[in-house]
Design goal:
Helix content is 30%, strand content 33%. The chain is built from ten helices and eleven strands. A hairpin with a 5-residue loop joins strand 10 and strand 11.
Amino acid sequence: MEYLDAENALLREGLRATRIGLCIVDANDRVVQTAGDFAERLGSSDRDMLGSSLRLHLPNTLLLPGLAGLLGMDGGEVGAEGHLRGQNGAADKVLLFQARTATVAGARFRIITMVDLDNFGATRDRMGDLQDTLQAIAASVVLVDAQAPDLPIAYVNRRFEQLTGYTARECIGRNCRFLQGPDTDPAAVEAIRRAIGLRQATQVVLRNYRKNGDAFDNELFLSPIFDAEGRLRWILGVARERRERALSSQAAA
């Protein structure tokens, strides 16, 4: 239970750090969980949204033509772009929503993620990259101690263990470079080093190696997490195996 609590807490912190909002709605349109800045972005609070209809918390200034598809339990996985009009003539904010249905113990839930594209610093050309990033949040997570020498791993979740073949005990205390190998692109490594030095988020594709020696292309998203004094405290990494390579490996088998 403590392991699960720690994992959930880190995911919530990661969502907030990367400016990604999360909302889970049941089949009766009741909000059962929020995380990140979902409620804040809509002008509400996590406490006020829980147990009530999500529709009641969508401001009148939100222009979201794809709302029915996002909330429909039978709508499959969908994405939609909305515009949130600012107050006092402020410019519109562009919000990217994505939703899918999950079934737990026979009950169905709608999982909705939201990204503020303005704060994220994204353009429409990066819409596909952002959707990949949202999917990656449900994948493997690593947390690096940014205040310790050589940036050691402080935490990995179980999906990270499954992705790499290494247990948490084998990872914690080591720098992530132990996953690199002969075909790792130095330019990708330098891009990571530069982003950390500038205390910025970045997204790269990095050739990594599992414990058994198999290579895989790792779609890695890194985001800094700061403490209350503005110091860089953690580096959050969200990773998944690049889809094209995974599919080609399955076909070859």
